[in-house]
Design a protein that fits this description.
Elements (H helix, E strand, L loop, with lengths): L1 H15 L1 E3 H8 L3 H13 L3 E8 L2 E8 L5 E7 L3 E8 L4 E8 L6 H18 L7 E8 L24 H9 L3 E5 H12 L7 E7 L3 E7 L2 E3 L29 H5 L1 H5 L11 H9 L3 H25 L3 E5 L7 H14 L9 E4 L6 H12 L3 H4 L7
Parallel strand pairs: 4-7, 7-8, 9-12, 12-13
Antiparallel strand pairs: 1-3, 2-3, 4-5, 5-6, 9-10, 10-11
Helix pairs in contact: 2-3, 4-5, 6-12, 9-10, 10-11
Amino acid sequence: MREANRARIVDSLKRHGQLTQVELAGITGLSPATVSNIVKELAATGVLHTSITSRSGRRATLVSLARQIGLVAGVHFTARHLRIAIADVARTIIAENHVPLALDHRYDAELDRASLLLTDMTESLGGSVRDLLAVGIGIPAPIDVRTGMVSTPGLLRGWEGVPIAESLAARVDRPVYADGEANLGGLAEAREGAARGAQSAVYVRAGHTISAGLIIDGDPYRGVTGKAGQIGHVTIDEDGPICRCGNRGCLETLAAGPALLGLFRPGDGMQRLSDLLVSAERGDASSRRVIADAGRHIGIAAASLSNLFDPERIVVGGELALAGETLLAPMRHALERSALASSTGIPEVVAASLGERAEVRGAITLAIDHVNIESEIPIASLA
């Protein structure tokens, strides 16, 4: 019983990052006295860290996992960038790197690059890649949870038929866990961002591609093959352009980065989404209209998703979300027109709070979720 209670407290801290002892008692169902005793025991052995804080005008003991337990890493591949972060098990990022990628990058070269960067980053911290307890990795495509491979052909050329986590694990000799980027962004926003506290939420990642993570009680719902939440391939116009998935008129063909940039003439200087965002911020009417139309299309697709999934909150992240209300206001309007309303109205639509770090923080959280903290505690300290 003592070991089970200790595990409940450690698992709660892995999930929530840090909690007061009162919050720990509420989440675990243990008595305040039991929580206090276990916290003191594990703090004395270096497993937990405690500090004094104030909640509602009262002193409270804030509890988190101790940093010295070990390190984890998060790796996030987008269509154009690679971001890597190393953090302790309390989710504090202590090293970070960000490099551009060629548009049609291949898995072998980029996993080699990720491995080298992880080695360099851990060595710069005075250690080695062997100090990593686990690594989480996110890619811009759904991953079949049964095979560890991209679940749908055509969504990520150069990465198909590859067991991604297994391939990186072979390079770094550490446990690796993989998921789609929208699931990881949603995981991070649910645990520590704009979706925290929501019973169910949708994280829409809008940028070079568009996808969504469905979150239930703080965890992603992936479906049988990992394809749950692929909002970018909801049909908006059945006579529309051919999508990379092979269908016509998918949301991505109307509202993802390449489609938006393709609306401008070659001489307009719209090479990347960042160019469009800067132009819109400066007040360019055409740029603002393009972003607003994208918001409307995303809102229509989100309405279908809302009718099926019934989320409490929709969190919008990705590079396009940096447009703020230029994107979100038309999205809300389309959602109001097309989604079934409940007694409380339509789902709340908010901007992501973790910005461009959401997915890499989700990869870190995925890694922490798979770390067996108890196995990292010296046996003598648990006696």
